[in-house]
Amino acid sequence: MDVTTMLDATELSVGYPGRVVGSGLSLSLQGGEVLALLGPNGCGKTTLLKTLLGLLPALGGSVQLQGRALAAWPLAERARVLAYVPQGQASTFGFTALEMVLMGRTAHLGLIARPGAKDRAIAQTSLERLGIAHLADRSVHRISGGERQLVLIARALAQQPQAVLLDEPTASLDFGNQGLVMRAIRTLAGEGLAVLFTTHDPNQALRCADRALLMREGRVLGDGAVQRVIEAEALRTLYDAGVHQVNDAAGGPPVFLPEFKA
Questions:
Q1: Is 259 within 8 Å of 242 (Cβ atoms)?
Q2: Do residues 156 and 216 both lie within one domain?
Q3: Quick check: 119 and 109 in contact, CB under 8 A?
Q4: Are strands 243-246 and 219-225 parallel, antiparallel or unpaired?
Q5: Domain region containing 106
Q6: 222-259 pLDDT per residue, tens
Q7: For an engineered disulfide with 79, which of 44, 107, 207, 226 has Cβ 3.0 to 4.6 Å away?
Q8: E-strand stretches of 66-184
Q9: Beta carbons of 27 and 38 less than 8 angstroms apart
Q10: Are residues 219 and 193 in the same domain?
């Protein structure tokens, strides 16, 4: 296996006891690369993501992290390499952004250890890397949805991982906040991290990712460079819907819209 390969799944079957959600799933994720996992609701994206993270056991096939079986990694050791950013949600408690990010240091602390000066410095640096250091002392209840999602990404960075997996990181965010999160994803890849994110939006995938994997009904329909994989006919098959393509006169990526009749 190439030493730069962070995650490698081969002929993976995913799901729950007595229920297979997806099968024959293979993918690889390299350092410094962004991979978008694209597909309709219920196609198995989140189940696959949780299996790659080790939150669900594989029903078949294999998952390797840095060339080593995922199941062979102790949980704390795995958390120092592989970080997870769930869909954004408001915290029940009024933590500050810095306190939330400090939670990412758990993987590096003992069971009863408290974060020290080094941990606080790493958390502060994680906020700075995403341009949100000014939010450090602000309650997560008093920031925008996009800023809160960036705080969750900063929490993942505080783990000092080498790969980050994000589940629909722009779900329920407005247009401007979606841009904040997409820029953050490119920042992570630019720093050499491997990044995988799930999305419903082919335009986000086309502009933010290097590669895309298309899933429908638990199977892979396409995998490769976004410019090759994300095209109108593939999207029609993926979503079983009409797709309207708007080309950029300046030669940039096209925009894909669902077809509808007024």
A1: yes
A2: no
A3: yes
A4: unpaired
A5: 88-160
A6: 999 999 999 999 999 999 999 999 998 888 899 999 98
A7: 107
A8: 68-69, 82-85, 163-166
A9: no
A10: yes
Contact 36, 199 (CB under 8 A): yes
| Chosen domain end from 107, 142, 160 | 160
Angle between helices 145-158 and 117-129 (to 10 degrees): 130
Beta bridge partners of 38: 199, 214
10 and 26, same domain (yes or no): yes
Tokens of 242: 């009409």
CB 78 within 8 A of CB 70: yes
Dihedral over alpha carbons 102, 108, 114, 117 (to 10 degrees): -70
Which residues fall within 8 angstroms of residue 17, CB to CB, at 6 or more apart? none
Same domain, 32 and 125: no
Q: Are 193 and 17 a contacting pair, CB within 8 Å?
A: no
Q: Do 172 and 258 belong together in one domain?
A: yes
Distance CA 143, CA 75 (A): 32
- Rounded Cα gap, residues 10 and 27, in angstroms: 7
The answer to whether 166 touches 197, Cβ cutoff 8 Å, is: yes
Tens digit of each residue's pLDDT (9 = 90 or more) over 35-82: 999 999 889 999 999 999 999 999 999 999 999 999 999 988 998 899
Burial of 123 (0-12, 13-18, 19+ CB in 10 A): buried
> What is the pTM for the complete model shown?
0.89
Question: What's 231's domain CATH number?
Answer: 3.40.50.300
The CA-based angle 37-84-123, given to 5 degrees, is: 135
